[in-house]
Amino acid sequence: MVGPIVREFATPAPTVIGVHQTLEEAHRIMRKQGIRHLPVLGANGALVGILSQRDLYFLETIQGVEPEEVEVEDAMSPEPFVVHPNTQLRAAARRMWQGRLSCSVVVEKQKVVGILTSVDALRALTHLLAPQAARRSGPRRAPARRRAR
CATH classification of 6-135, choosing from 3.10.580.10, 1.20.81.30, 2.60.40.1640, 1.10.8.640? Predict the structure, then answer.
C-alpha cells in the first residue's frame, strides 16, 4: 500500500534566511509571517541549517547576547533533517517523531522547496483519519452555535 507523500502536506516555498542576517531580522520575519522555523541558506544558496524560534529564545537568555548584532549562523542548528518531496509521509513523520524534530526541510535538486512542520503533520493526521466521505467533500466547518434564550 502506497501512502501519502511529503509533497501533499508540506508547506511549499518556505521563507528562508541567510547565515549572515541577524537574530533581530529572524525574529521580525517569524513574527510577521507567524512561523517558527527558517531554513538557513549559505552564501551559495545551499541549505546549511535550520533556525527555530526555540533556538532564538535559548540564545537570547544568555547574558550579553545582542539580537541586532548576533548572526543567524551562531544560533542555527546545522545539518537539518532533509527529505525529498516524494518521501513517504509516514517515513518522514516517523523520523521526526523518533528524533523529536519539529520540522524537516523539503529539498529537491539541492533547492529548498518546502518545509514539513509538526503542524503540517497534525493536519495530515486529521485529514487521513477523517471518514472517506469527509475527505472527498473537503474540510468540514464547525457547526453553528445556538443562542441561549
Answer: 3.10.580.10
Alpha carbon distance 86, 106 (integer Å): 9
Report the alpha-carbon distance of residue 10 to residue 13 in Å, rounded: 9
Distance from the first to the final alpha carbon of the chain: 52
- For helices 118-129 and 89-98, angle between their N-to-C axes, nearest 10 degrees: 130
The domain limits of the chain are: 6-135
* Cβ contact 16:49 at 8 Å: no
Residues 6+ apart with CB under 8 A from 25: 17, 72
| pLDDT score, position 1 | 55
Give the chain's length: 149
Is 63 exposed, middle or buried (CB count within 10 Å of its CB: 0-12, 13-18, 19+)?
exposed
Tens-place pLDDT, residues 100-123: 999 999 999 999 999 999 999 999
Q: Which range (6-15, 16-25, 50-59, 123-132) has the least confidence? A: 123-132
